[in-house]
Each structure stands twice: as structure tokens, then as C-alpha cells.
Write a structure and sequence with these properties.
This protein is an alpha+beta fold and about 170 residues long. Helix content is about 30%, strand content about 20%.
Length: about 170
């Protein structure tokens, strides 16, 4: 019929239930937990836990399994936050790609306020930090940087509490 539009069905509502939340909690605390132990803890069979984990991965909730290492034991004794001021958005994509490729940069955030980006970096010493800053300052569109050295860390975690909910849409 002319002038009519076919509508597609709405996307399925994605929810986290108590069991998903418990699995996320357990896996964040111990990413190496055996599936049999997870199954026992949440009261499901091992295949059911494996299926839930696959679904959490497919929905983008569970994004990976990582080892946590001691940076100082590996010789990366200096941590700093680098605040970057840019001249505008003309070089945004190249800046993000270039900084993302630097192994010393652990986090890269676009921010509001004084500057356009904040980087969390770890390097072996202040000489390495100076070299890294020169690299960052050399990217097109970078007007300047301001750096804060971390003297000590009292809490650093990637743990996020979860609760039963309808998942937020992905970008």
C-alpha cells in the first residue's frame, strides 16, 4: 500500500536477573573461577552457567577475562594523569588513534572542563614520562598538557557492582 511503512519488531528487552548479577560478581572477583564452582555457587548446572556466560558476552556485558599484574614489580614505577588541551576537534580521530596505540597509556578519556582528554599512564621512570609527554604533545591539535604524578594509590579497581535491571542500550 503506498505511503505505508513496515515497522520492524522492537528489539528484545535485555535484562539481568539475580543469577546474572551473582555470576558477574563472582567473575569480577575471580576471573579464573571454574565453571563447576560457579554453577555450584549460583545453583545451576555447569552447561547452564556456560550458556549464561556466553549470553552475557554476546550482549556486551561481560567484555573479557584479564590477569591483574603489579606494575611496580614489572618496573613501571611511575603513574601519572595527563590532562590534554586541544586546539579543537579537527584532529580528534587521529589523536585518539595515536594515543590509543601507545602502550604506556592505560586509559584515555574525553572529558569536559579544563582540557579535552585525560590519560592514565604508567612508565618506568620520569625519563620515560618525559619522552611520552613529548610524543603526546607532538600530535597535531595538541595545544598543551598538564601532568599530575601519583604518589600513592589507596584504591584501584575495575570492579563494578551490578543489580537486576534492564540493560542500557548500546551505542
Amino acid at each position: 500500500m503506498p505511503g505505508t511503512f513496515e515497522s520492524s519488531p522492537p528489539p528484545p528487552v535485555e535484562k539481568l536477573d539475580e543469577t546474572d548479577v551473582r555470576l558477574l560478581d563472582l567473575l569480577q572477583r575471580d576471573g579464573r573461577a571454574k565453571r563447576t564452582a560457579l554453577a555450584e555457587d549460583v545453583g545451576l548446572s555447569t552447561p547452564s552457567v556456560s550458556d549464561r556466560m556466553r549470553k552475557l558476552e554476546a550482549r556486551g556485558v561481560l567484555t573479557g577475562y584479564h590477569a591483574s599484574v603489579d606494575a611496580k614489580r614489572l618496573g613501571h614505577d611511575v603513574m601519572a594523569f595527563v590532562f590534554v588541551q586541544s586546539t579543537g576537534s579537527e584532529h580528534y580521530g587521529a589523536f585518539v588513534a595515536g594515543v590509543s596505540a601507545l602502550p604506556e597509556v592505560q586509559e584515555l578519556h574525553s572529558v569536559t572542563g579544563d582540557g579535552s582528554h585525560v590519560l592514565k599512564v604508567r612508565v618506568r621512570n620520569t625519563t620515560a614520562l618525559e619522552r611520552l609527554l613529548a610524543t603526546v604533545q607532538g600530535f597535531p591539535g595538541v595545544r598543551g598538557t598538564r601532568t599530575s604524578l601519583v604518589l600513592s594509590t589507596h584504591k584501584e579497581t575495575t570492579y563494578l557492582p551490578a543489580e537486576p535491571m534492564t540493560l542500557a542500550p548500546t551505542d
